Every structure is written in C-alpha cells, then in structure tokens.
Amino acid sequence: MGAAFLLSAVSGIYLLATDGSLWHLALSHAYGLVLIVVIDVVLGTLNLLARRSVYVPSLAAAALGFLLQAGDIVTAPQYNMTIPYFARYLFGLPGYDALLALQATVIAAGVFGRSYASYLARVRKGRRGKQFSYARRDFVKAFAAFATVVGGAVLAASVKLPAPQQQGTQTSTSSLPNGAIANVNQLQVGSPVYFEYPSGYPNILLKNADGTLTALSMLCTHICCECSYDSSVNQIYCPCHGSVFDTSGRVLRGPAQTPLPSVKLSVDSAGLVYAQAISGSGPCTP
C-alpha cells in the first residue's frame, strides 16, 4: 500500500508538470490534485513505516482519490467539451491511467490484505496486541475529512481572477446595436475584436490586409483551452499544450490536428457585422 501510494504521488506530479490544461483550463482540478499528491506522500510514508493507525484512512484516501479522478470525466460540459471526447483525452494520458490504477491497487491491497495485516499485528504485538479497526464509521470519518481538505482547495481555486489581456488592441464595441460584433468601417488590420457566439463561446474577429474579415473560434481543437492572438506574428496560440494556428484557423503546430471552426458573418448596409453560424467542427463546438 505504501509503495502504491508513493507511485501514485509520482504519477500526480507528472500530470501536474506535463498537462498545461490543468493550470490554464481547470485550476481547481490542479489544486485538488496537488492535495491528493501530498496526502499520497504522507500516507505512503506512514504505510511503509507500518503505522497501524493509517490503515483505514489509507483506504478512505485511495477511494476518494479514485472517485475524484474518475469523476473528472463528467465535468466535460463545464469546459465546453463532450463527455466521450474528454474521456478519450483523459484515458490517453499515461499519468492519469497510472494514477487511477495505483489508487485502485491501494484499495485492493487494503481490502484483500486484511487477514495478513491482522497477522502482522499479532506477530508484532503478541497475541493480545491491539488489532486493526475495520469499523465502517472510521472509514466514513476519514473519507469525510479528506474530502473536506481537498474540497477546500478546490473551492479556493474556483475564485475567479481577472482574465489576462489579449495581445493586440481590442476595438471597442460599446456603442454598437444589440447583436452587432463591430462596424466594419472602424476595424483595423491587427486590431482584433473578441466576441461570444453562441453565448459562452469565445471568438475573434480579424480584418485582413486585403479588407476581408475572418472570425474564428478561440477554443483550441485539442482540449478546448482558450487561445490567445499574438499580433506580432499574426498567429493564434494555445497556452495549454502549445498548439499554433494561423489567422485562417489552420494548424501550424500540434498537438491540435483540426482547424479552428470559423464563424460565418453578415454585414449590413451600415457596415455592422453580425455572427450567423458556426462553420467547421471540433470537440468544443456547440
């Protein structure tokens, strides 16, 4: 159990170090995983020292860790993804798979090793030595305590901070009629307009050098992290895993493989630009 806990902590650290989407897209999940790693290290060490008092809490912590990590799958809609796509992504991460397997190993070792653990306790303390406690109440109390600690970290990470400024100057849309994105006569090359369409889905409107307009989704087609536009190189960059797109939405660098969906536009006689429909597909397209 101790070895499995410590290997689980290594898997968690690997995920935190390599999966940028945890820190950019799901900060609350990252904080929760940090707490799980800390708990794994502490319990792993105490189990290797054969501390009898952590036997049942270890089972509770492993059960909580497994449920929380597996439960991440159902949070996909929160990040504008479908559950099947998010599940494929998560189970494609070696660190995630190892974390689940090792937490399950702790549970299996604890449950099926009860008789051997009791035997060791008798050998160490004599036949009248204190036996392991398997009371369901102890398990529930330990589970609730760990859940409170991890839940507190998740809540702290859920506090919304001001969003970082996108690179490039954003054209003001405050004086536009309801539903309009921009006035084509006020747009400038290299000065983007950011808008939501549909509600909750971020997009960018760009005026090209030839006077045409391009509107693209700003959700990366790899794992739906919100991208940034860099006016100095005229490219769209994903901070989670480093995907890069040109201003036509084409992939310049992976891991994304699908172009950014575009937004079909209409321009009325007054030069007002309106979003009409989404063109193209991706895991985060409504």
How would you sum up this structure, described in words?
By secondary structure, the chain is of the alpha+beta class. The chain has 2 domains: 2-157, no CATH class; 182-279, Rieske Iron-sulfur Protein (3-layer Sandwich). 43% of the residues lie in helices and 15% in strands. It is built from 8 helices and 10 strands. β3 (202-207) and β4 (213-217) form a beta hairpin. The longest helix has 22 residues, at 27-48. The radius of gyration is 25 Å and the shape is elongated. Residues 163-169 have low confidence and may be disordered.
Keywords:
43% helix; 8 helices; 2 domains; 286 residues; three-stranded antiparallel beta sheet; Rieske Iron-sulfur Protein; alpha+beta
Please specify the SSE layout and strand pairing:
Blueprint: H1 2-18, H2 20-24, H3 27-48, H4 55-71, H5 83-91, H6 94-112, H7 114-125, H8 136-157, E1 182-183, E2 193-196, E3 202-207, E4 213-217, E5 228-230, E6 235-237, E7 244-246, E8 251-253, E9 262-267, E10 272-279
Antiparallel strand pairs: 1-10, 2-3, 3-4, 5-6, 6-7, 7-8, 9-10
Termini, distance in Å? 44 Å
Average pLDDT works out at: 86
Q: How many β-strand runs?
A: 10
Q: Low-confidence parts lasting 5 or more residues at pLDDT below 50?
A: 163-169
Rg over CA atoms, rounded to whole Å, is: 25 Å
What are the secondary-structure elements, in order, as H or E? Answer: HHHHHHHHEEEEEEEEEE
User: β content, as a range?
Assistant: 15-25%
Tertiary shape: elongated
**Portion of residues in helices?**
40-55%
